[in-house]
Amino acid sequence: MLAEAPVADLLGLRRGKWTFLPVAPRRIEFAALVRRRLHELRPARVAVEVPGEFGPLIGVAVNALPNFSAVMMGSRDDPREEVAAIVEPGDALTEAVRTASELGIPATGIGSLAAVAYPQKDVYPDPAALAIISYEKYVEQYFLNPPPAPGADERAAWAAARLSELDPEAETAVVVTLPVFVRLLSLLPNAEKREWPYWTGTAQNFQLAASCLGDVTADCPYLQERYEEIRQQLVQDPACPLPDRRRWLADLWKEAEDNYRAIYRGELAPWQRRQASRFLERLVRIDSMIAPSLFDLIAAARGVVDDNFAYEIWRLGVTPRYHAPRGSDLVELRAEQVFASTRLLRLRQRYEREKRRLVPRAWKRRPPRDLRGWAAQLGGDAICSYPPEDIVIEDYGRFLRQKARTMLGEERSRVEPFTTSVLDGIDLRETIRRWHEGRLWVRETERVAGNAGAVVVIFDEDPLDRYPWLTTWLGEHSNESDMAFYSTPPFDNLVGPGIGRAEYGGFLMTLPPGRLMDVWTDPDYDFAETKAERLLLAALDYSLDRLVVYAAARPPRAIFRQIAARLGRQIVYIPLGALSPEKLRKIRVLHVLDSHERRRIASRYIW
Fold first, then answer.
1. DSSP secondary structure string, 140-174?
2. What are the residue ranges of helices labelled H in 368-453?
């Protein structure tokens, strides 16, 4: 609804029969607000801060919406010398002309090319605040501490001179930028008439090439097209809220996740989403904003996930669906022609593709798939693992044991000021943090007693019983661990004759080999509530070393630490989020062979 008269009068938004609508240009929130206010006011005339020299050009560009256009000015020989205006759906000034045209209201340009110069350097509080506070409150806060606006005095003088020529008794809506409005109020009573040096060169309207829209728009095409979708609803439904930039950008992120999963077979881990959220929060604070920009989203995606995911966000954000320019006379602009300052971020997309050449004979070929024939060959006298996978998982077990000792050492380290000894080395972080004290700080790391023995890794605690295959097998030599694990049934997914593919839900590894009984039928562990707890109990029972490594999404219940203490053991918990998701995805897959003879042919089927 419109503001109450006292508030509007106090802010200068209402003077006589003129209603002022100061806006931040090229922002979807203000475009939506201008459209709604003009429908409520239904004035006799709309005055907009666009150069009067444009004449009918601005109307031609507005009629071409939702296609993006640029009004270019220059000499008669080359009208593309300089950008005068970008005409886009999410711009409040453009929306004022567009809505006036739809309502049959004459629109007058009160700006001048003599005072307009791209790129402009105006600074505005984050328009996303309009989802939290009222429009009048936003204008009031801007009034309290207006940021510097180079050239705004000249623009306001031209706007005041042009307004002085209009009939003050006609209901008029005046749509101007916030820096001009701050100065315009004081100039209006004594506005000087000016001779209008209309542009003597050539101004011409060009439609923009789709490839440059991401570089020359303040709000990315994704947001502007979402605004275009709700544009009619803004005036048909009074309860329709203004654009919610943060929610729309969250939708963009989710859509990019779907594409990333479908195209690159990637999956974002929960810790990556949390880290990206913290990353974005810091970026937003640095810019003193409320909502992130598309650039911020891409930077967070690249830093936390990878370039492929960042590329999907960029592609969705800058690829227009409604922009369909006609004709071949398109203009492709650079960001430097429109913005005073720009930022550059390079993305290196990585993807697998088929080689477009003949495959050398020496290369390994995958045998043809024959599920029925492979199933008929099942029935070996034993099951065994695939040796190359054993090497990978044993290496990872050693890595987890070393990481557990390192974590304990860091937890027990202490930092103190340097006196007579540097102990285990200078702590640069603490020294920099307390630089004002003028002292060096050194770190002493307590030596961890004992080694790490059994290792338990839990990918899924399996409350829905999706991993029904319960197995215990023994190491075949002194460097191979005994293992107990639960997984998907391997022979339900055959990849070769007698070769099945499964996925771990969780596993236990313990050295030396040859000692592990069947964990799944041992009555000593019957009080465990889940498969993961049964594996942890077995690890505490069989570990010969004091430390037991437990890597899972969440730590074990407190009772297990009591059990460990009674057995003289200590559980070292490692969150899965602290481990590489790529490495976890690699070791989670295992292949089971139905006899030792299958190992001779397994390399032909396991890739």
1. HHHHHSPPP-TTHHHHHHHHHHHHTTS-TTS-EEE
2. 371-376, 387-411, 428-433
Nearest to 19 by CA among 52, 54, 44: 44
Query: Can you tell me the distance from the alpha carbon of 435 to that of 437, in angstroms, rounded to the nearest whole number?
Result: 5
List, in sequence order, every residue forming a beta bridge with 23; answer none if it has no partner: 177
Model confidence over 464-518: pLDDT tens digits?
888 999 999 998 888 899 999 999 998 888 888 888 889 999 999 998 888 888 9
The residue among 333, 329, 322 whose CA lies nearest residue 85 is 333
pLDDT tens for each residue of 413-442: 777 888 888 777 888 888 888 888 888 888
Distance CA 594, CA 573 (A): 35
| Cα separation, 582 vs 579, whole angstroms | 9
Report the percent of the chain where pLDDT is more than 70. Answer: 87
Q: Where are the beta strands (DSSP E) in 287-381?
A: 330-331
Asked whether 188 and 49 are in contact (CB, 8 A), the reply is no
Given this model, what pLDDT does residue 127 score? Answer: 92
The residues that bridge with 550 in the sheet, in sequence order, are 456, 573
The phi, psi pair for 311, rounded to 5°, reads -65, -40
Q: 151-155: long-range contacts (C-beta < 8 A, 24 or more apart)?
A: 151/115, 151/117, 151/120, 152/122, 152/177, 152/179, 152/180, 152/182, 152/183, 153/183, 154/114, 154/115, 155/49, 155/111, 155/112, 155/115, 155/116, 155/179, 155/180
pLDDT score of 5: 45
Report residue 444 as tokens. Answer: 């002493």
Task: Say if residue 353's pLDDT is above 70.
Answer: no
Q: How far is Cα 258 from Cα 52, in angstroms, rounded to an integer?
A: 47
- Strand stretches in 230-346, DSSP E: 330-331
C-alpha distances (whole Å) from 135 to each of 30, 41, 103, 132, 142 are 9, 16, 23, 10, 11
Pairing of strands 330-331, 107-111: unpaired
Looking at residue 394, its pLDDT comes to: 92
Strand partners, 108: 47
Helix (H, G, I), strand (E, B) or coil at 394: helix
| pLDDT computed for residue 91 by the predictor | 94
Residue 216: both structure tokens together? 């020359």
The per-residue DSSP string of 216-264 comes to H-SS-HHHHHHHHHHHHHHHH-TTPPPP-HHHHHHHHHHHHHHHHHHHH
| H or E element, residue 313 | helix 307-318
What's the whole-number mean pLDDT along residues 209-221? 91
Mean pLDDT taken over the chain: 85
pLDDT of residue 355: 46
The tokens describing 573, both together, are 């918990």
| In 47-169, alpha helices (H) | 57-63, 92-103, 135-144, 152-163
Contact 24, 219 (CB under 8 A): no
Q: Which residue has the higher pLDDT, 322 or 176?
A: 176
Report the C-alpha gap between 375 and 388 in whole angstroms: 24
